[in-house]
Specification:
The complex is a heterodimer of chains A (163) and B (254).
Chain A: H1 2-23, H2 31-50, H3 56-78, H4 82-90, H5 96-111, H6 116-150, H7 152-155
Chain B: H1 6-22, H2 27-40, E1 43-49, E2 53-60, E3 66-72, H3 80-95, H4 100-111, H5 118-135, H6 140-162, H7 167-182, H8 192-199, H9 206-217, H10 221-253
Antiparallel strand pairs in B: 1-2, 2-3
Helix pairs in contact in B: 1-2, 2-3, 3-4, 5-6, 5-8, 6-7, 6-8, 7-8, 7-10, 9-10
The chains are: A mainly alpha (163), B mainly alpha (254).
């Protein structure tokens, strides 16, 4: 059952990455790598959060690192820059639920200005959700970019055709 | 055929750089690619990049003429295809010493290539958002509702952007429409809050968000902050559209 959960998580993440990636017009040859990395990255975060008990921020950072190294490896094979592969692969990990809750809490806060208990509750909801959303987005970008700094010589010449 | 003058070549380099910047590539790659292209044309180059324009100073190594180019950065749709093909072109230019005419022909061929079929993209985005709903714990009915809401919302977005309506208004309108359609999930006794939350996520400007962080980390703080600022403005617009729906249906949500 655990295995099915992990696989289905990876599967839906791959579809999400392909669809959101398609908006940004990636080259056709990149789709396979995007789907593969998105599935591995999201399933990795799913495992870390659900079975290893790691928080969402650290789990996102680790998964983004995995995606970053993966894009360095696959990018060289299909002559694509790292960002072309890892940005679509990161998109399913953007914490949409937390972003939504932030907006929802803001509206409810403004609607309940005269009720101290509810007001405090929504204020807390606004800040905790907003903080998670911003931290995760930042860590996702940083994690995937770190491989580019470590192996900058290779990362900068992925699109070079060697004769 | 008349040989291109250094002036024409300098203008070409500026157009190339502005196009890269316009189609959503992080700044350090734009600078590296442009340096490669200008080196292949025998120029030494210095570049300053801003959000809406860039300044290039090119020194032709044979004639010792200096050219200064200020170009506006066009607002193009994001294209990873252009990113990888134009990057590859810059390596080709320097590795194979491409003559200017060939370089220009190849550049024009790359930028005039058609994008992925919009209808196909529309379907893919619908499926993507539906699987997003699944990832957040939505059930099958919610997924179907999110799929149709996304398809309609994305279609509205494409049509409105096509008519050159202000993109803040486009984002408010399409997030309102998508979330309103998703709120039909309230009729069924299902995970409707997840459906409403995920229905607007196809609008999140993920590429500028990540590019902005990359730019800041790499020291191009100015462009990084401006990318993030414009992305945040769009997110606020999504939130406004979503709030209108939430105002309408909030009593049934609590």
């Amino acid at each position: 059952m655990i295995l099915i959960n992990i696989l289905s998580d990876g599967f839906f993440a791959a579809i999400a990455a392909i669809g959101f990636g398609a908006i940004s017009d990636p080259p056709m040859r990149a789709f396979k790598s995007i789907a593969l990395l998105a599935a591995i990255g999201h399933a990795c975060r799913f495992c870390l959060m659900n079975y290893a008990g790691i928080d969402i921020a650290t789990a996102s950072l680790i998964s983004a690192l995995v995606i970053g190294f993966g894009s360095l490896w696959l990018g060289g094979k299909i002559y694509c820059p790292m960002t072309v592969i890892y940005i679509p692969a990161l998109l399913p990990m953007i914490p949409g639920k937390f972003a939504y809750n932030t907006v929802f809490a803001q509206i409810m806060f403004l609607q309940n200005m005269n009720e101290p208990v509810l007001k405090a509750k929504y204020m807390e909801m606004f800040f905790s959700n907003g903080m998670v959303a911003i931290t995760v987005i930042f860590l996702l970008a940083i994690g995937a970019t770190i491989p580019m700094f470590i192996f900058h010589r290779k990362a900068f010449s992925l699109t070079r055709h060697k004769n | 055929m008349v040989c291109a003058t250094p002036q024409q070549q300098a203008t070409f380099v500026a157009t190339y750089a502005a196009h890269l910047m316009g189609c959503g590539i992080h700044t350090s790659r734009v600078v590296r690619n442009t340096k490669r292209v200008s080196e292949s044309l025998n120029f030494a180059i210095n570049i300053s990049v801003f959000q809406k324009s860039m300044i290039l100073t090119l020194l032709h190594k044979e004639t010792h003429h200096t050219f200064s180019e200020v170009v506006e950065i066009p607002a193009l749709p994001i294209s990873f295809e252009h990113n990888s093909e134009l990057s590859a072109l810059s390596w080709e230019a320097i590795d194979q010493k491409l003559p200017f005419e060939l370089l220009e022909t190849k550049y024009n061929a790359i930028i005039s290539k058609s994008r992925i079929d919009p209808l196909f993209v529309l379907l893919l985005v619908g499926f993507a958002n539906a699987s997003f709903c699944k990832l957040f714990g939505g059930d099958w009915i919610s997924m179907a509702i999110v799929f149709s809401a996304t398809v309609v919302g994305f279609f509205v977005r494409t049509q409105m952007l096509h008519k050159h309506i202000n993109h803040y208004i486009v984002f408010i309108a399409s997030s309102f429409i998508a979330s309103l359609l998703a709120s039909t999930a309230l009729i069924f006794n299902i995970t409707s809050d997840i459906a409403i939350a995920t229905s607007v996520l196809y609008l999140i400007p993920g590429v500028p968000l990540i590019n902005g962080v990359i730019d800041i980390v790499e020291g191009h703080t100015l462009t990084g902050i401006s990318r993030l600022t414009s992305a945040f403005l769009l997110i606020i617009c999504i939130a406004i559209g979503l709030s209108i729906t939430l105002f309408l249906v909030r009593d049934s949500l609590i």
